[in-house]
Amino acid sequence: MKNIAVIGAGTMGNGIAHTFAQCGYNVNLIDISQAAIDRGMATISKNLDRMVAKEKISEADKAETLGNITTYTSLKDGVSNIDLVVEAATENLDLKLKIFKDLDELCPANAILATNTSSISITQIAAVTSRPEKVIGMHFMNPVPIMKLVEIIRGYNTTDEVTNTIMEMSRNLKKIPTEVNDYPGFVANRILMPMLNESIETLYNGVAGVQEIDTVMKLGMAHPMGPLQLADFIGLDVCLSILNVMYDGFKNPKYAPCPLLVNMVAAGKLGVKSGEGFYDYSESRKAEKVAKMFA
Ligand SMILES: NC(=O)c1ccc[n+]([C@@H]2O[C@H](COP(=O)([O-])OP(=O)(O)OC[C@H]3O[C@@H](n4cnc5c(N)ncnc54)[C@H](O)[C@@H]3O)[C@@H](O)[C@H]2O)c1
């Protein structure tokens, strides 16, 4: 397995492309938006610069990594000759079903089709293809080049052989894969999202301010980042989509998204990526804020 296609050049897609390319894989990075590709490639370059500055990699490693990535705006051109697809497009069920229908038609018959979805059913995605045994969840964490975990989600029909191949490949990426079953939110988000939602509810109820809530969880629970800051970093639209998938999937009101989260997404306040969420990331302060998140 040498040739990888990554669908979506956003927050996760550019990190996934970066990680595969740095480990020597040929990566086709595909997005419907040229602007998203340009932003994604600029982010990869900036993140590699940071690694060079820290002497984790050399300038030659940076050039080789960038050289391993080819970009496409056409799905057809980008997947004709690949062994594995990792889909990291927007978290939307209808969009993912359409992409997987197309991938099934366009990819070589033996290619494995993985999705980085945070919560959508792998089994449901697999069902629109003619190869459900080769569809699997490969859930990377954000920021991908830094975070060790990959949650590997077996759909109802995913075979042992495909699961083992993806577990092994994740180890080749110097990640630690963990296998889980296919239920809404899997493990990571089933536990994380109710905590983020409760933090937003705490703010909505006027119990404390943004800084106070984050300070309590950072200093009191030794979390590296406060929950509201983490929600901004993940993307408030992504958090809302995941909560809705769990709410619909379990039919349990404990997953109902807080009205404040719903309102903020409707108002376009999506967190770091839109410049404003619970915190302000306006251009002049964005780099400084993001740097602090990683500090
Ligand atoms: N943000 C996180 O922290 C995080 C963590 C783990 C998993 N995920 C999952 O990763 C996926 C991507 O999330 P993100 O945060 O990177 O989103 P994002 O909004 O940053 O990027 C999504 C990208 O997909 C592109 N896209 C949309 N439709 C497309 C299509 N038909 N073909 C190709 N590209 C298309 C968009 O142009 C955009 O660049 C989602 O499924 C999300 O649930 C996100």
TrEMBL record:
UniProtKB keywords: Oxidoreductase
Entry superkingdom: Bacteria
Record domain 3-hydroxyacyl-CoA dehydrogenase C-terminal: where: 185-281
Enzymatic class: oxidoreductase
Gene3D superfamilies: N-(1-d-carboxylethyl)-l-norvaline Dehydrogenase, domain 2, NAD(P)-binding Rossmann-like Domain
Record flagged with keyword Oxidoreductase: yes
EC annotation from Swiss-Prot or TrEMBL: 1.1.1.35
Domain 3-hydroxyacyl-CoA dehydrogenase NAD binding residue range list: 3-182
Keyword Oxidoreductase: yes
GO molecular function: (3S)-3-hydroxyacyl-CoA dehydrogenase (NAD+) activity
UniProt similarity note: Belongs to the 3-hydroxyacyl-CoA dehydrogenase family.
Protein name per UniProt: 3-hydroxyacyl-CoA dehydrogenase family protein
Species, as recorded: Pseudofulvibacter geojedonensis
Organism phylogeny: Bacteria, Pseudomonadati, Bacteroidota, Flavobacteriia, Flavobacteriales
